[in-house]
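>> Question from a student workshop board

For tomorrow's exercise we were told to take the sequence and the ligand below, predict the bound structure, and bring the output to class. My setup keeps failing. Could a helper post the expected result so I can at least see what it should look like? The ligand is D-xylitol-5-phosphate.
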Amino acid sequence: MVMKLSASILSIQHDSAIKEKISKLLNSSINYLHLDIMDGNFVANKTWEYNEMVNLLPRNTKNLDVHLMVNDVKKYVYDFALLKPVYITFQLEAVNNPLEIINLIKEHDIKVGIAIKPNTPISFLNDYFALVDLVLVMSVEPGLGGQKFLDDSVKKIEELYSIREKNNYKYVIEVDGGINDRTVSYCSKCDIIVVGSFITNGNYEERIKQLKAK
Ligand code: DX5
Ligand code: ZN
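>> Workshop helper replied:
Here is what the output should look like for this input. Compare the format with yours to find the bug.
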């Protein structure tokens, strides 16, 4: 598997051993740790505020891939920039000023990701392709782990791939939700896959190996 692996910890949110499990993931062969930040408004689920997250991560944790599913995007950009993540990705549907958010994340020297929900068309991103470092295709409705991969996501991945090739854009393509040893084969044109429950519901190293073998 040439693509990179970003492990989501959403499904162990309420696990009493979450701290140890995060360390185990960080010591595995994953490329990024995917932090699903939910405010209970943009999506019904609530996950971690900055001060909660910082207590769960080893100091100076690298390779963080922050996925904001929040309404007050600016507040969470300021907060989570403190963790010095590689990416901060926000949902297009949550803001009326994408350019302002893109610039705010860039001002923190953090790579910018823009995410779209399953029923948001690719064309809604037209004005931002040249400006972002990552486009995240949500292959499930945001809010929960353990959902089924939505097959329509494959068309979006193909479209993003050809738009990038045609225009020589630089964004990486990330897909997130319902990815397992079967659905990973639909994501061959992606650069990063986000995997949560398939890894955290099983033996971490075994499940990671199964994904990389595809
Ligand atoms: C859903 C999150 C995803 C989710 C992936 O809103 O953005 O990152 O945690 O989990 P699985 O792999 O279990 O679908
Ligand atoms: Zn996510």
